[in-house]
Amino acid sequence: MRNFSYARPGTIDEAYHVAERTRFLAGGTNLIDLMKSDVERPAHVIDLKSLGMNRIEEQPGGGLRLGALATNADTAMHPLVTERHPLLASAILAGASAQIRNVATNGGNLNQRTRCHYFYDPDMPCNKRAPGVGCAARGGRNRIMAVLGTSDACIATFPSDMCIALAALHATVNLHGPEGARSVPVRDYHCLPGKTPWIENVLQSGEIVTSIDLPAISFEGHYTYLKIRDRLSFAFAIVSVAVGLEMESDGTIRCGHVALGGVGTKPWCVPEAEALMKHRPPSHSLFRDVAERIMEGAVMDRDNAAKLKLAPRVIERALWQAAEGTPQSQTCKIIR
Ligand code: SF4
């Protein structure tokens, strides 16, 4: 048992806390697990749940603002989200279990930490948990680890489903902290591990995620979230792909949006690959080129070579599903 102070501020101005070893608590589905595993050892826990920030609201121009403390379940089931951003609803419902989605929040989903087995085991070397001690996953049991964006220091996969859809949708993360408010495109929010794998996002000390903005963008049925996992009931992605295609009336692609999960150290987007689709009709050669471009630079370790073969097939499949307007059923995992 490790002691920590606990506070539940009533306003956001009271919530800023820049003391060492402070952790913000929202749904607690990740932080509490990490504290039980003795991976997180906060000296201060600031519970944000009294701050409101749980609404889902229309924005001028047709966009949506998702409160950081809205639960994943309330977000996925909200009529404005299901009507305007079914891609996001589908990705959220593909993640975790109903019980977890009822508690987990949008801000917590953004800031959740990797599910690398070694990270959760304080007896194993892990640069993310203890800088400089090494990485047990490199050369270890690493079937679930990343193949894109890795470094010598860390190959941990970013685990979220929701964030993959947010990246495809070009969402923006709104932050508030001691220095004031600022906004960050979600594609720039998470950091590559490089030599500092313990720095996972651009949050500064004391900053809090207040909301997430979704632009007014409609794929009119040309979207899909395709997630491949070990078991359908409840598992993290081996590979997942979020696709949204803006189509012309003649069937050509005006603009394609793709993000990849389960294979990268952060939500993986390659704008050059997306640009290949501009003003082109869907075709096998185009979608193969897009998949190859997205996977450029992928590096396997001991056990995860299968991801190098599986990911391009999942990308192509997702692109066809989106082009044909047949969003992926979360109960059908057939990859042809
Ligand atoms: Fe730690 Fe990253 Fe290595 Fe996993 S992959 S053991 S999180 S440093």
Any chance you could write out the topology, listing elements then pairs?
Elements: E1 5-7, H1 12-15, E2 22-25, H2 31-36, E3 44-47, E4 56-58, E5 64-67, H3 72-77, H4 79-84, H5 86-93, H6 98-101, H7 106-111, H8 162-168, E6 172-177, E7 180-185, E8 208-214, E9 223-229, E10 237-247, E11 253-261, H9 271-275, H10 284-295, H11 306-323
Residues 114, 116, 118-119, 126-128, 135-137, 154-156, 197 line the site of iron/sulfur cluster (SF4).
Can you describe this structure in just a few lines?
The protein contains eleven helices and eleven strands. With 336 residues, the protein is α+β, with helices and mostly antiparallel strands. The structure holds iron/sulfur cluster (SF4).
Report on this model:
- By secondary structure, the chain is α+β, with helices and mostly antiparallel strands.
- Helices cover 24% and strands 19% of the residues.
- The chain contains 11 helices and 11 strands.
- The strands form 3 sheets. It has a 5-stranded antiparallel beta sheet, with no helix packed on it. Strands 1-3-2 form a 3-stranded parallel beta sheet, with no helix packed on it. Strands 9-10-11 form a 3-stranded antiparallel beta sheet, sandwiched between helices.
- The longest helix is centred in the C-terminal third of the chain and has 18 residues, at 306-323.
- The protein binds iron/sulfur cluster.
- Residues 114, 116, 118-119, 126-128, 135-137, 154-156, 197 line the site of iron/sulfur cluster (SF4).
- Iron/sulfur cluster (SF4) is lined by residues 114, 116, 118-119, 126-128, 135-137, 154-156, 197.
